[in-house]
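pasting input
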Amino acid sequence: MAATRTDSRSLELIGFALIALLIMVVLPLMLDIFRLNLVGKYLTYAFVAVGLVLCWGHTGILSLGQGVFFGLGGYCMAAFLKLEASSVENTRIQSTPGIPDFMDWNQLTELPFFWVPFKSLPFALIAVVAVPAIAAFILGAAMFKRRVGGVYFAIITQALASVLTILIIGRQGYTGGINGITDLRTLLGWDIRTDNAKYILYFVCCFLLLGIMLLARFVLASKLGRILVATRDQEDRVRFSGYDVANFKIFVFCLASAMAAIGGAMFALQVGFMSPSFVGIVPSIEMVIFCAVGGRHSLVGAVVGTLVVNWGKTLFSESFPELWLFAMGGLFIAVVLAFPRGLAGLVTDQLIPRLPHWRGWTHRQPSPAPAE
Amino acid sequence: MFGEYSLGELGSILVMQGFAGLILFSVFLLMALGLAIIFGQMGVINMAHGEFMILGAYMTYLCSHLFEAYLPSLYGGYFFAAMIIAFLAAGALGLLVEWALVRRLYARPLDTLLATWGLSLIMQQAFRSTFGAREVGVELPQWMMGSLNVTGSIEVQINGLFVMGLTLLITAAVAVLLFKSKWGLQVRAVVANRTMSGAVGIDTRRIDRLTFGLGCGIAGVAGSAFTMIGSTGPTAGQLYIVDTFLVVVFGGAQSLLGTVASALSISQSQSALEFFLTGSMAKVLTLLMVIGLLMLRPQGLFVLKVRR
């Protein structure tokens, strides 16, 4: 089976190169900055999808609460940006200048203590990854050590997504409520709303995404990755072989959450606001479908799936808004029933075997190269 | 915070709040019953459960209009006809869904979850296209309006009482079905050991389908009862789905008694907390408590020994 393994490995590399080419060269050349910014927004969801490939596709932990971690990361970033935007000069007209506008509207007269550290960028950047990772660790440790898994875990993470949304909406003075944290302007004095800044942020987002895909690839290719897959397929056997399954699950869940959080932070930077509508049950489960459409086992597939579904969503909701939910629902059902391995599965199972050139080219190395 | 109230008033508040909790309990229990049957028996998560409920609610809405237009003399009793229609409609759709979708996915519970979520999106949009995006309410018949004055300061709404009575009735009916009928015996056998049940000649596929249909039908009745105390919109089902799942999981998936107990404890603690805190904080605290308790006791309150 050595040949198939090199096959899939080279296939993955090619996919990786193609996706890099697509997001770094083709799309920036093709699209105007408004559309490119939209793509950048979609790519932030791809961070979540890549995390889901790790924890759902390869370890079998379905989390319906990835929006929680996306949101926590986004809110940590937005908190810093908001504080910078709410300097005393900018907020002169408020009854308490120097605090974010929504706090002033809610009759708060000083910054709540947990907002204070977000005045420092290094703290905010660490918090972007650390807060969600710690949250995931606590949840994961509590659940996996008690051997709660499968459907129960999915339901509990979903409940958590609902809890966080209610909390954010209910504590308006501290969180900005249902509108979220809006009107983010500058990052250390650098205006993030200009076209120039949007281009730069887009490329930062691409680099981070590719970096995270490489990290995920590294994890999956390592011995650790093997144990994860074994856990998914035969958890008890792995346990009986002497591995502490819970620790592996906690690790991968934390990793996936940190990835989602980085996506959230890039979202806040690129889109210029953060709101609870990216935290709750619906966005969380949509992120799962991005991953499922692309192929839950494939890193490249997850990114492609995210782009395709979001592209479809934008197209549909621009022209036929009432059809969008039908299409989305149908997509959920079709993916699960007809092609559970997603787009990536279609490529590897259907397309590649039908390309005789391709096969010959990888198997017999010094072969006449294809004409093109 | 109790300074402003006299002792008598405080007692009345307690009773009223308890009553509000009981109505919430009825709602939770009605929703959770159908889900508990489906989840307990087949391990299938039906994310579209809320939408089956809303289907029942819309059926009731339709019925009330039909009765108003064609049978005004019988208007007082339209609700009973509506419940039957809601049960049949939701049940029939449930059977169809089981046949088309769920039965192909028994081996993959997480995928069922995604597929039924897709179904719920489709149903939502179908409701929106058919009945409009705005919330609709039904007009209560005369005898269901108003409230009973128990004492000077305590009054209970008749429609709330009616819903509570209905809940008791349906729960009792489900209990009788499960523990006294032949079907119930077969269901319990399949829950306990699917392979052996198949070996002794129980058609497990048929049982699965009937169970799924029955669970959805009960959701329809729940939706029908729901119109008595609130209005219905296309996305109303989603609001309750998390609570319902927590009720079922917290109670212990295979146990009817567990579902009742967990619905009672969750609803009472939520409505009690609502008095001290804002509604949203009460909900957050209740959900967090349930999640915390589930960490301590992952199998839920009541555990049934089953062989997987």
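fyi The radius of gyration of chain B is 20 Å.
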